[in-house]
Amino acid sequence: MRDFTLFIPEYIAAGAAIGVLALELALPRLRRDALAWATAAGAAAWLIAALFYVGDAPGDFEGLLRTDAFTAYFRILAAGAVLAVALLSARYLRDRTRAAGEYYGLLLMAGAGMTLLSAARELLTAYVALELLSFSLYVLVGYLKRDARSNEASLKYILLGAFSSAMLLYGISLLYGLTGSTTYAGVAEGLAARGEGTDLAALAAIMLIVAGVGFKVSAAPFHMWAPDAYQGAPLPVTAFLATASKAAGFALILRLFTEALAVDALEWRAAIAALAAITMTAGNLLAIQQTNLKRLLAYSSIGQAGYMLVAVAAIGYGDAAAAQNASSALLLHIAGYTLSTMALFAALVAHYNRTGDESIEGLRGLSATQPFLALVISASLFSFAGLPFFAGFATKLLLFQAGTGAGLLWLAGLGAANSFISLYYYLMVMRRMYLFDPPEGQTRIRPPALLGAMAGLLLLGVVFIGVYPGPVFEATDGAAAALFEASAAAFARLP
Amino acid sequence: MSFYDTWAAILIASIAGFILVFTALVGARLLGPFARERGKGVSYECGMLPTGRNWSQVHVRYYLFAIMFLIFDVETIFIFPWAVTFLDLPGFVFWYMFVFITVLGAGLLYAWRRGVLEWR
After folding, report:
1. Residue A2 φ then ψ, to 5°
2. Which end of chain B is more exposed for a tag (fewer CB within 10 A), N or C?
């Protein structure tokens, strides 16, 4: 049915994007951070509108888009991420650029693209939504146009992004050739009923799609763009890349692999499991030797993508119940990871606004000059490593449990071993903050009010999920149930 | 007929295409007369002798004009199929194109106001 009311929250986001552009056009003399507040207000309105849609009956737009608890989950995540990144950007961009309207407009557009991606149930719709997100990010990554590194990051991201999009499109066209349909349900039906001797074509299509989405979530060996893009991008955009962009990639993977490709789990599950193992190991080992904080976080986020892929592999190896369990664990991990990353970046942006230093060495003595920021950074890093009382512990536990539940004991073991490796380089960062003296002449100063408050709130969220994950777990459970309600037909066909 | 048989025609057509191009190139090389002289290496400029080097740079400002041109150039590709078929399609298809053109027009307006069309 052609129900245009399903996406009113996204109309608000897109409207706010155009509003921000018009605002800058009409009042060129406006203070640059006023645009950030306008964007934050738009994102907050989007978030509130999204909350009204929680618990609604699943809606369907022409079989192309579906709004259910799964969509609502990612919608809230996207709106929250855009809100947080807009607030992070206010001072950062004011100090560095003259025109910021396009930055904030594209940020909102990227968020809307993420929601559409989580709603898409048709290959081309998903592709267009993915490109809406990616194109916005290509520009955002290179937004500091006087900074050579930002330009380099954008160029590398565009080239590899276009390459991965091409692979995804090849996979999509092969799937269409095989099944004669582009809707996920139609693809699943066509794959189940395909003729003899087409296994090779199906394998090629699925591997191309795996490689294409692997690029988007920066899974090794498709991670080459991530360190450069993370390092060159403006710091708030790096936060967006690490959280929303990655979450969007997994939204696409979840919809695609539980519905369209579930019937061919035999063809892709080993590849995904191998990808997970390589990604987490490569990410964590390469992170050890980094000296730049943004690069370190890029490799650490690659490692996190590896943990998340464990759940995707579990979807392939388990039955419907185990797969739903794994999806729920993945969604929970994404929530915990997003909160931890945002808290970390709030503290890092506050640090960077003052010092302009993005090396790990530059953090030395932070516990003496800005103890609160040091505390937030340590807590977020502990959460990444998966220490108890922080979000990472609860979410990773459930994630690896889902892996073992589907018989992937070796992968869960490898994940636990990798968590230990990651603890090493996280502790090296903390060593700089706590065991070294600050540079000469620096004394204790108060953190900036807004970023400090944000970091504090996000930290509370991280601890809340770590200590009492119940409420969020219920939400992810509902989202996973909705996901599998949509794909029940696909799983019924499993051998 | 299996999956691959349906595509055999395309495979044959591509092989035939390669053969055609290959024979044309090789035939020209084997049969055509060759005379090497300096004037042939000069770039062709409608008869007059070119001045300056042919590696001259194009000003980066052309880039924005090229992008604006490209947007409306591509727009026609979408408008042509719409123009021949919208009478047979449901009514909303007619209005979709208006939305599309409005979005592009708003983009042009934005670029105009931002001073993209001025040569500064």
Report:
1. -95, 75
2. C
Contact A194 B110 (CB under 8 A): no
Q: Using CA coordinates, name the residue in chain A closest to B103.
A: A18
User: For A177-209, what is each residue's pLDDT tens digit?
Assistant: 999 999 999 999 899 888 778 889 999 999 999
Give yes or no for residue B55 having a pLDDT over 80: no
Q: What is the mean pLDDT of residues A380-387?
A: 93
| Whole-number percent of chain A with pLDDT over 70 | 99
Please check the confidence at residue A29 and state whether its pLDDT lies above 80: yes
- Angle among Cα A329, A116, A478 to the nearest 5 degrees reads 30
CB of B2 within 8 Å of a chain A CB? The answer is yes
User: pLDDT tens digits, residue range A219-263?
Assistant: 989 999 999 999 999 999 999 999 999 999 999 999 999 989 988
Entry pTM: 0.89
**Residue B7's closest chain A neighbor by CA?**
A177
**What Rg value do the Cα atoms of chain A yield, rounded?**
21
Distance CA A353, CA A182 (A): 47
Q: How confident is the model at residue B7 (pLDDT cuts 50, 70, 90)?
A: confident
Q: Do A448 and A90 touch, CB atoms closer than 8 A?
A: no
Is the CB of B53 inside 8 Å of chain A's CB atoms?
no
B5–A contact, CB cutoff 8 A: no
Instruction: Answer whether A308's CB lies under 8 Å from A376's CB.
Output: no
Mutate to test the interface with A, among B10, B71, B114 (most CBs of A within 10 A): B114
Averaged confidence pLDDT in chain A: 92
Report the sign of the C-alpha dihedral through residues A152, A156, A161, A162, in that order. Answer: positive
- Domain spans in chain B, listed from the N-terminal domain onward: 61-113
H, E, C per residue of A28-88? CCCCHHHHHHHHHHHHHHHHHHHHHCCCCCCEEECCCEEECHHHHHHHHHHHHHHHHHHHH
Predicted local confidence at residue A336, as pLDDT = 95
- Pick from B2, B106, B113: which is nearest to A197 by CB? B2
